[in-house]
Amino acid sequence: METSFALTGKGYVIVAADTTSARSIVKMKVDEDKIKTLSPHLLMAYSGEPGDTVQFAEYVERNIRLYQIRNIYPLRPSAAASWIRRSLAESLRSRKPYSVNLLLGGYDTATFDPHLYWIDYLGTISEVPFAAHGYGAYFALSLLDRYHDPSASLEEGLATLKRCIDEVSKRLVVSPGKYKVKIVDKDGVREVEL
Amino acid sequence: MSIMELNGGSVIAMVGKDCVAIAADMRLGNQALGISSKFERIFPVTDRIYLGLPGLATDVATLRERFRFRVNMYTIKEEREIQPETFAHLVSSTLYEHRFGPYFIEPVMAGISKTPSGAVKPFIAATDLIGCLNFAKDFVVAGTASTKLYGVAEGLWEPDLEPEDLFETISQTLLNATDRDAFSGWGCIVHIITKDKVVTRTLKGRMD
Amino acid sequence: MPDMVSIAQPIQQSFNPYTENGGTILAIAGADFSVIAGDTRQSEGYNIQTRYAPKVFRLTDKAVLAVNGFAADGNMFVKKVRQRLEWYRHAHAKDMPIRAIARLIQTMLYARRFFPYYVYNILGGIEEDGTGAVYSFDPVGSYEREACRAAGAAQSLVQPFLDNQIYFKNQTPAPGTSFPAHLPLQTVLSLVIDSFTSATERHIEVGDGLEIYVVVAKGSTSAQGLQNLRGVQELTATDDGERVFVVRRELKKD
Predict the structure, then answer these.
(1) Which of A172, B61, C83, C190 has the fewest Cβ atoms surrounding its Cβ within 10 A?
(2) B28 vs A126: CB contact, 8 Å cut-off?
(3) Which UniProt keywords apply (chain C) (predicted)?
């Protein structure tokens, strides 16, 4: 089953999402990138109904890009989160709502601090120190309650993420195999291998 | 699975002597899973009016944006601050506009209004999810712990409480009610509104 | 005229052997007394069947049972418990101790595990060591000894209030002091009356009348303040030492 995690640390946000693309009981693909880079300092992990996910993520990606082209400056994380939430909330009461859950991690280049938003397909939003979607959330959140440190270094943050991934692999029956892990900090976005 | 109980959360407002109080828990959940313990569901509308929005969390955010917009429009057009009574009717009509496809929120509001003579009048009100107004003289409650809040508030509340005593009463009511509700809790916030200031406190309570 | 065969359909017959009759019960244990109370309204849906149907029953001089839920089951259950207590008296020439009654109630409830008595029981009284006791049960016999318990229609209104006022939950004692483990009878009676007036105010199924049973241990001074209480009546039957009183009060009837 689809699982994604994210956590903040000292000046960074780590976002991780599994790479499997499944249809029913069949794994169709094992190297799918489900984390989009929306702007130089903004990451979005998406999961949910196949089809809706990519469609909505690309819609968001293009609109965030459009804003940056028009205004020179990109949206700050909180503004981007509000816009994305509103898109989902409006979609919810439409004929065919998007069924997409998001984790939005960003680094605010104006205030020099990391932000993480938990957003679900209803348009529920919450700024959190750490977050997870999917069945993995049931394992990861309790681990993050215990081990998360908002002032942790990047190495410590990645070690905490590894705990979450290992626990899900160990205990979840329908656990995903591989994860893509991306980091956003003052230097922008980069991908790391665990 | 009830939509009103999907995210959990409760709000209560009480009247005191020349003061009002409004308080809420801070849990955001997805059914039994806790997502956040820092979820705000009470928002300032003016310096003297606070609005609590228990219910579906997406609608908490949507309605907050909507009321901010409509209150700003009112302030610009009327060139004056909105009064609590007027705001209550604004809330009611906004909700009733969506009579057959409602926002899943039961708003609770608290404020202080100034009478023409210059005296202050405490004001509280609540509505159901389609905007039926309830102007109570004592206290109003809403959310997943509403039955518990009714029981404790009915036992603890008394008329003409001073701000500090009102704070103790509303805090004890909320704390003890949310401790018996699985969908509410995870921290509490209390606002005490008097004629010249608002005191906001967060409460230390059980986190389970 | 339509063909009778073509419109004839199989009819599913069903009979629901249960109903819910509202009301609320409550019990609080003191150091050497126990208070067991219940309102007297009996209703079915929005219909009030009677304004006086007792839900609290004296079993012995040291045990009082409150039953709430489906009234027919409740009355039958009390009848069966009383029968078993009578047999015990004939066999052992004494009243059954309260902890034994509690275990008896468990086995009687669990005996009907697959067609339960649809009732919540609260048993209050005096333990053999002279302490006040409250035992609360679920419909199939899970039970526990506690200091206080509310059950029934207004349980969700009353229980958190009791947590606050009896267990002092969410309260901090003044520096150098501590909260009492047991409250005096006068305080307990006030809390019981407050609980029921509050529940009556906010719950449609609660009201009409209030019956508060007080069981006092042998040699306890708690009984003294009770004699000149308004609406009190003594129900003590034996000279074992424990005494049972009932206090009747009016509740709002709307």
Answers:
(1) C83
(2) yes
(3) Cytoplasm, Nucleus, Proteasome
